[in-house]
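Reviewers asked in the last cycle whether our approach scales beyond single polypeptides. To address this, we selected a multi-component target totalling 579 residues and predicted its structure end to end. The input consisted of the following lines:
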Amino acid sequence: MSLIASLRTPRGLITVLLLVVLAVLPLLTQAFDQRYLLSIGTRIVIWAIAAVSLNMILGYGGMVSFGHAVFFGIGGYAVGILSHHGVASGWIQWPIAIVAATLWAALVGALSLRTRGLYFIMITLAFAQLVFYVGGGLEAYGADDGLNISRSRFPDFIDLRDKASFYWLCFALLCGTLWFCSRFANSRFGLVIRGAKSNELRMTALGFPVFRYRLAAFTLSGALGGLSGILLANEGAYISPAMMSWVKSGDLIVIVVLGGMGALFGPLYGTIAFFVLEETLPPLLDLLRTGWGEYWQIVFGPMLVLVALYAKGGIDSLFGSPKEWRRHG
Amino acid sequence: MAEPLLAAAGLIKRFGGLIATDNVSIDVRPGEIHALIGPNGAGKTTLVSQLTGNLRPDAGTIHFAGRDITHLPMHARVRLGLARSFQITSVLREFTALDNVALAVQAHAGHSFRFLADVRRDENLRGLARRGLEEVGLAARADTPAAALSHGEQRQLEIAMALAGDPRLLLLDEPMAGMGGEESQRMIGFLQGLKGRRCMLLIEHDMDAVFQLADRITVLVYGRAIASGTPAEIRANAEVRQAYLGEGDA
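The resulting structure, written as structure tokens, was:
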């Protein structure tokens, strides 16, 4: 994709502007002295990585995994447990966390991808709940209350305690993830995954061992999900089973659907919209009447219904035909 | 006589108390077009599903090119050169015609665990796919989404996809189904053009087509193969006439 060419379309222009704002966010929040906004921005970027990874299997592959937040938990707990036992170096923590998430994804994928539809949704949820309850039972690591941890150390490389540095690291990783997803979507592998979403029997009859490709995609997606878990644990310097509750898995699906399934930047739009609404709806409703803010989801829910009914391509589809984008891409 | 390319022997498939395939043996010799006919409910699709690997037979064996494929999954059979089209049109509706064929080519061009290179700039795949579309007369529709093609064009596209891997045997499940007279005639003409170059097992309702195309015909009634022979022999066979042709199903 040529950057200049993409600027000519509304979609390209909006996306580039968005990325520029995100790239300089720490400077903006410093200039306006809004440290809290940087913390939200960091979480948006981390969640966007998880959403992009879910989009790879859900949006492109039609695999409705209802347990994707489990990778927040696995990535986070791997870092937290190692840190708790004095292994502070991120060079050791992070690879172990990614390997753990990858292995878990491979195991869950190998079992769940033999089923379809509702069964697949239920099995992925069941495996995620299993890990959730294991996390809640780990007395040594705070059980349900969770555990305060110290951030990963990368001596002479980057200090994650510095909020701006940490943000830029997350942003760089998001850009890397988006770049990979853009390549993946139009690669041989990506076309097999998308073809299997469109017509599995046809793909099998063409000679593709569909299961193997789906398992590879599911595993890859889990590995990237694990990365977002590592970042999330470092962002709050805290881990708890709540980070992998089924509600978070549901939020991730909502984000992907809201942003636009199978659209490259859909998960990013979805994450921003989700966080902005989560932050702004409660105070707005409180303005109407004190106490209403708590029930912001009463407003959020119908908005989702509207998207599901009238904007099937999510926010992404509001920026014009996705075909145009693909041709440029 | 040459060794058959596909040889099924003693196939039996039961669904509960119903015997859908009753001790059927059928073979396809290199270079020939073998047609499988039979009234509705005779078990043609069940038989084809066992040959392609959708269904496992309860008993019997299937050999393809001298190899026992009875227990191979569908995708592995396709890899060996057994391609098929479906009775109900089955294409990737969201993909362009060219992408459909390019994926079929890709299926036979090594593994697809390649994550970075843009597949639409892969001139090897695209070139072969374009030639495949030309062969079935769809070159002008290359960039049209498959969903926007007419029914007849979608059937042509399916043939192009089946041919893409240069298969040793084409298994065509009612390629003329749902086509108008003119479209049917064009498809028959196309298949006739493949005759001698491609080995085919043709499942077809359209008797005109079958008698025009087939070198040999096998008649299936109530799951049993009641006759097998040249078109002339089948036409003359009293049992076939009574069980099938006489009933005016043709």
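The first strand of chain B starts at residue 6 and ends at 15. We regard this as preliminary and will revisit it once experimental data from Aim 1 are available.
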